[in-house]
Structure formats: C-alpha cells, structure tokens
Hints:
Elements: E1 2-7, E2 22-23, E3 26-27, H1 28-39, E4 44-49, H2 52-60, E5 64-67, H3 79-90, E6 97-101, H4 110-122, E7 128-133, E8 143-145, E9 151-153, E10 172-181, H5 182-186, E11 196-200, H6 212-224
Parallel strand pairs: 1-4, 1-6, 4-5, 7-11
Antiparallel strand pairs: 2-3, 6-10, 7-10, 8-9
Amino acid sequence: MNIALITARGGSKGLPGKNIHMLAGKPLLAWSIDAAKESGLFKEVYVSTDCPDIAVVAEKFGAKIIERPPEFATDNASSHVVIDHAIKELALKGSDKVMLLQPTSPLRTVVDIKQSFEIFEKNEKCSCVISVYEPDNTPAKAYKILESGEITGLVSSEAPYTRRQDLPRCFQPNGAIYLFSVDGFSQSQCIPKFGVFPYVMEEERSLDVDTLADMQKIEAYLQQK
C-alpha cells in the first residue's frame, strides 16, 4: 500500500497562514494534494496538522486528516516524529510505502511523483528516493573551516581549483519528495540515510515557500508557463 503524507502545521513565522495562502487560484496546500491524487498511486492522501483551518481546506480538496498533537507541531519538532506519529496512527505495515510531500513545494508534479516511484522500484538497493536539483554553483567547490581557522576544500583540497566538469556531480535536496518504506523508516526512526537514490528536478522548479516573496516568485513562474 502506498500513502501520501503531507505535513502542514499551523505556525509559520515567515508567512502567517502559509499553508492555506492562495497561490494562483487555490491554497498552497492544495497543489500537493491535487498532484498526489491525480497520480493515482496512493490508497489515501493524508494531511498531518494541528490547525483546524488547514484541516478544513485539506478535506475540501479530498485529503484525510491526521490530528497532530501540539508537542509535534512546535518549531523544534522534527519531521521524523511527525512521520512516526502518522505511521502509528495509520497502523502501517513494514512493506507499505510513504511519500512525504511538503506543501511548500508546489511545483512538484504528477510526473515527478510517478518517476520517483519508478526509481524506487527498479533499484534493488534503494531504501529511499529524495528529490534534488543540481545547482549552477556546485557545492563541490565549497570550503570548510578547520579547527585551526584555516579553510580547505569540502570535497578535497584541490576541488575549489578544479574545473566543474572534472568534479563529481553534486546535488541539493529541494524538499519536494521523500519516498521510503515503513521498514526503512522504522530501522532508524528517521528517513533512511543509506540506499538513497536521487530524483533530479530542475532548479527553477525547486523553489520552496517560506515568505511572501517566495510565493510571488512561484506565482510568476506559473504565469510564465
């Protein structure tokens, strides 16, 4: 069984009411619900929330609600405790698959969801698929600081001075998709860190909503497309 889990708490300092803020004619949250439902891959789409207003919107667009306890809806609560709570509330089995869809990534599409499942199914060693993008400024050229105060290349001492095409490809997570089995999560009580395969998205579709300015950028992108 596959389920989609959308985590949407009520508190947001950058943009109050963010998860139900209107984006191109519908609430931000609805973009993730619609993509999940339209994929046809999930038995149910669930929204984990502590907020009655978010619950009303989620149900309007066809999602089911997992009532999140207040202690799992603070600024310091990790996504791992929210996922664990959902797994227990739904009594999921080890072979069941969960796709975590953060509502702040509205540019994720049905195609992205389907292709992530294809990656998971075709790789025997896969325990998790994470959506990523390849930034123009590769992290392979970054520096790290040593205890002495010196800096050196993050990948190697030579990497900052090496041509990009001669460096390993590096990716940044964009938060749009996390796909894993319940067994994979339960082994360490977190999203698996080994056997992780990338689903590569374009950088322009990897925008994440935190502020009103982010929302405006995404709306401009949608209008352009």
